[in-house]
């Protein structure tokens, strides 16, 4: 390599380090600014406040119209070890964690009580820019906020761009040889020798299941968690092509199967390619969700993906999970002046019942929320960071599609 090329690369590395440091500082500042200080010792995120409910609503969620009935029950629970929430500005505010705990104490049935199995949804389209990650995180959040259901949700980010980790709470390790794990780290552990990150966790005495849990990050909701991705995960394809063993089954066998009973719904967010990583997602899933923007070029690329999809699935190794359903979800739909109406309707006409009736609209509210490391569902109109009408319409479109997806899943036998 020439000295000129090496100099160019070193300059790029310096710039990358600066950008990464600046972005980390920006994220930390935004998250800190989104906290509300209630007293000298107590501060809480606006996201948690936005999703908290007053005592009257908590009582009704339990099925009691009388707040006095709820208060009496709460007194009984305290004797069993339950600790009521802090009062915020003179009133009780029940965060999602408390909502779930109380609904369990009240004996309200949840999704897993109906033995529906684990739905593993691969969100995939070879066309980039169709809103796969945006669709995944917003649908997961919308379903996670349906507290009466208490659906246990995991998102596995299999896209090396790794954008979904921005919506999770990061982990930090005091040990220099430990760092954030990804699905690919777990899938390739035995191929990368004694110096692998996975092996470092083994050296500290963690079991395989413990290590998988270390790879999963919490969010503001107790029932929505994220396994992040990083650019280094691209190496999976190289290891697959160069190795003697077929690595496609490993996502299912080494990552999902050991923990599937802990979750009701697992989303897999994939990159805009066709490669061993996306084949791994096809092998592991029992449902396929294809987001598409109703734009001519996007739809043309998507139809090519759909045309080739049967061949990809048939070429998978034996032992795959088996796809029970395929659905198309229209995203980034511009409703203003009916710009996308014609093609949106044509997509529905051509693929009929394979297309969800509801769709996610195009709105600046999604971008604004993402800049604040949130989904639109985590933003309150009173914060003033989004135009109220845009925020309301964006939320409605996500919730409507999430409800249609939920009803669809209830009809699927696993």
From TrEMBL:
<dbReference type="InterPro" id="IPR025669">
    <property type="entry name" value="AAA_dom"/>
</dbReference>
<feature type="domain" description="AAA">
    <location>
        <begin position="119"/>
        <end position="308"/>
    </location>
</feature>
<dbReference type="InterPro" id="IPR027417">
    <property type="entry name" value="P-loop_NTPase"/>
</dbReference>
<dbReference type="InterPro" id="IPR050678">
    <property type="entry name" value="DNA_Partitioning_ATPase"/>
</dbReference>
<protein>
    <submittedName>
        <fullName>ParA family protein</fullName>
    </submittedName>
</protein>
<keyword id="KW-0614">Plasmid</keyword>
<dbReference type="Pfam" id="PF13614">
    <property type="entry name" value="AAA_31"/>
</dbReference>
């Amino acid at each position: 390599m020439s000295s000129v090329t090496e100099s160019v690369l070193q300059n790029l590395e310096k710039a990358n380090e600066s950008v990464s440091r600046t972005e980390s500082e920006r994220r930390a500042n935004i998250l800190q600014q989104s906290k509300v200080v209630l007293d000298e010792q107590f501060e809480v995120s606006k996201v948690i406040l936005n999703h908290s409910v007053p005592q009257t609503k908590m009582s009704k969620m339990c099925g009691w119209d009388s707040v006095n009935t709820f208060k009496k029950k709460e007194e009984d629970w305290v004797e069993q070890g339950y600790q009521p929430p802090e009062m915020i500005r003179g009133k009780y505010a029940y965060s999602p964690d408390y909502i779930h705990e109380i609904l369990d104490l009240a004996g309200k049935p949840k999704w897993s009580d109906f033995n529906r199995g684990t739905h593993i949804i691969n969100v995939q389209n070879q066309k980039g820019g169709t809103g796969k990650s945006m669709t995944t995180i917003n649908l997961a959040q919308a379903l996670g906020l349906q507290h009466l259901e208490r659906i246990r949700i995991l998102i596995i980010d299999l896209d090396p761009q790794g954008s979904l980790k921005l919506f999770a709470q990061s982990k930090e390790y005091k040990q220099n040889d430990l760092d954030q794990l990804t699905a690919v780290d777990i899938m390739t552990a035995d191929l990368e020798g004694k110096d692998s990150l996975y092996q470092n966790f083994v050296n500290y005495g963690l079991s395989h299941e413990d290590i998988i849990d270390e790879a999963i990050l919490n969010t503001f909701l107790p029932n929505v968690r994220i396994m992040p991705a990083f650019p280094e995960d691209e190496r999976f394809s190289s290891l697959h092509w160069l190795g003697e063993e077929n690595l496609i089954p490993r996502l299912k066998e080494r990552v999902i199967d050991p923990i599937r009973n802990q979750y009701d719904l697992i989303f897999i967010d994939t990159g805009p390619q066709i490669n061993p990583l996306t084949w791994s997602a096809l092998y592991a899933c029992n449902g396929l969700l294809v987001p598409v923007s109703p734009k001519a070029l996007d739809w043309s690329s998507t139809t090519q993906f759909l045309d080739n999809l049967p061949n990809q699935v048939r070429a998978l190794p034996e032992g795959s999970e088996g796809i029970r359903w395929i659905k198309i979800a229209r995203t980034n739909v511009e409703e203003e002046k009916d710009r996308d109406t014609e093609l949106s309707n044509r997509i529905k006409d051509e693929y009929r019942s394979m297309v969800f009736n509801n769709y996610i609209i195009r709105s600046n509210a999604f971008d604004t929320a993402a800049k604040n490391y949130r989904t639109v569902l985590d933003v309150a109109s009173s914060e003033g960071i989004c135009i109220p009408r845009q925020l309301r319409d964006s939320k409605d479109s996500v919730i409507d599609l999430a409800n249609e997806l939920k009803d669809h899943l209830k009809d699927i036998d696993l």
